[in-house]
Design brief:
Helix content: 40-55%
GO biological process, one term: sodium ion export across plasma membrane
Largest sheet: none
Low-confidence stretches: none
Strand content: under 5%
Mean pLDDT: 79
Structural class: mainly alpha
GO cellular component, one term: plasma membrane
Radius of gyration: 29 Å
Number of helices: 2
GO molecular function: sodium ion transmembrane transporter activity
Main location: membrane
Subcellular location: Cell membrane
Amino acid sequence: MDINNFQFSDGITMSIFAMLVVFLILVLLQMIIYSFKFLPQDLNGKNKAVTAAPVAAPAHQDNDEEDRMVAMLTASALAKEEYQGNVKVKSIKRIG
């Protein structure tokens, strides 16, 4: 392939080859990223088996304000489906 005699078909061939190289590299990267889930997660170099211990729920939650906000948003979203118009939450009462 000479640069002085470069034809349209040579450009098409080079473009297809370049796209194939790019897609092969993308597939290779996808397989590398997929294989990360099989690697151990321990950063200290020890090969410990990961076991999930049950965690007891705290008796009192410190994020009560966040819970209230979630309750307001959930109630307004559910009421919006039923009523046509704006919905205003006036109060929140814990029932459980």
